[in-house]
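Re: the 278-residue chain
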Amino acid sequence: MDTQPLKPCLLLLHGFLGSGSDWDTLASELGPHFRLLTPDLPGHGSAPFEVQFDEKAEHQLDGNCSSPFDKVCLDLLHWLAEQNVTEFHLLGYSLGGRLALHMARLAPKSLLSLNLESCHPGLESNIARAERLAADSLWAKRLAIEPLPVFLDAWYRQGVFAHLDDTARHALVAKRCAQHQDKHRQALLQMYLATSLANQQDLRAVPANLPCPVNLYVGEQDQKFTALANQWQQQQADIRLFTIEGAGHNCHAEQPGRFAHCLLQGIFHHSSAGQSHV
């Protein structure tokens, strides 16, 4: 429940297979500073947004103003307007980060800061997008037919989650099973296909056109996204990069205290760009 609407707003967008409740671990650190807004994305959580995707849009490779990403973001912006939110800080993790990039492109003047955790800026060639679409289509077939625990166990054995031991992976699978109801399975599948990285444009240039601070956050154990973030930060010196010690892909879940500290530093003390290892 919103009890202090006069604080600056922070919109938090979770990742694929997550939910708005994923951000609960940061509430004690961030709650004193922000009005926290944590919606469930389409197909996710207990109260997801309902978005009708164009079937053709799920398979487009070039992206445009009517992309499925923009459709989700426009619905989120409409929801924010209903909450009387005109300006806000924005944080997105993984899929949520990619949505945040699109939202920043659509509504740059509404942002007070853009914060991207383990976020891919977009593939740089149509060949790479086609390869990604083929891979995502195989995962989609598994998501459509396999029991959710079986799918999740396979999903969290991917390289980006390689730092998770059996205990951590089993706990994460159990958490995700509890968050998702089978009645939303089709919507989850549509969301996965519609917001495939294959459908995303290369959005590396978006931060350069924003009138607000831009911060990247990666886990030191996530080699893939650390390399992406370093490359991105070197191309755009105004971006500040935070590396979270003891964290993998999902920094805010694995090191909530360190992540919250970095987020507050990035938002309130963005006096100069550069890199920080925390």
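The chain has ten helices and seven strands.
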